[in-house]
């Protein structure tokens, strides 16, 4: 059985898939908004499975197979697919494989890069320097894993440029969603042990390392995508570039792309209300 969370709610089934390094609880404000209009559920990516091993993953294709299996297990043939970052790519690839399973797609700043960038990444991997060439792998492996006080984490994060568009409330939610009470070597959590990351840095790095290089199929298939599709990108993102957006629309004029001002790659956590409103406006138009 594929692990997932049933968030409840009423209305059409909506599947939400989280990003690398950000467990589902980081998206609590957006999920709460979606629950008003939809029956919402979300698969857990393998890094959040018990006893999962990073070395078993060579590319991102198995995650899409997991999603299709989850839809099979839940006997769903007509879900709205929403995903952020890798979650968007996993959802998109699942839709390429089985388009009849999705009524609409909403891709939040997907990890999709131009072909020349993919070729450069493949070259780096070929020469064995992929781990050093990727800008995020080293940082993931050096990431602090344990914390004594989440308020101190907030004070540190509040100063970082990457979180500049977060409200204080949403930044607190993000930090709480990224962490859990530390159980140490015992079976029980203890306040004296502080907190630890939910998402393993080894898994986070592995996701970065195995991405991009097998994504030729995305560009090969995007022109034939008939499912109503919306892409929301952060106007100041470092991931789904404006040039990539132009390439996507050149390939498929039916795909709608919206840039959300004062937002980055983390837009669903920075601007949950705006993301919800843009998404619902789109869904009302196409469904």
Your description of this structure?
The chain has 287 residues and is of the alpha/beta class. It has helices at 28-37, 61-73, 86-97, 115-126, 130-133, 137-141, 150-158, 168-178, 201-210, 216-221, 242-251, 267-270, 272-286, and strands spanning 4-8, 12-17, 38-43, 79-84, 102-108, 146-147, 179-181, 195-197, 229-234, 256-260. The chain has a domain at 4-127 and 214-286: Alpha/Beta hydrolase fold, catalytic domain (Rossmann fold). The protein has 13 helices and ten strands. The protein starts with a strand and ends with a helix. The mean pLDDT is 93.
* Structural class computed from helices and strand pairing: alpha/beta
What's the story with the biggest beta sheet? 7 strands, mixed
Annotated CATH topology of the domain at 4-127 and 214-286 = Rossmann fold
The CATH homologous superfamily of the domain at 4-127 and 214-286 is termed Alpha/Beta hydrolase fold, catalytic domain
Low-confidence stretches: none
Number of helices: 13
Summarize model confidence as the mean pLDDT. 93
Lateral arrangement of strands in the main beta sheet? 1-3-2-4-5-9-10
| Total beta strands | 10
Strand fraction band? Answer: 15-25%
Helix content: 40-55%
CATH class of the domain at 4-127 and 214-286: Alpha Beta
CA radius of gyration: 18 Å
The 3D shape can be described as globular
Could you give the distance between the termini?
A: 30 Å
How do the helices and strands follow one another from N- to C-terminus? EEHEHEHEHHHEHHEEHHEHEHH
**From the coordinates shown, what is the CATH architecture of the domain at 4-127 and 214-286?**
3-Layer(aba) Sandwich
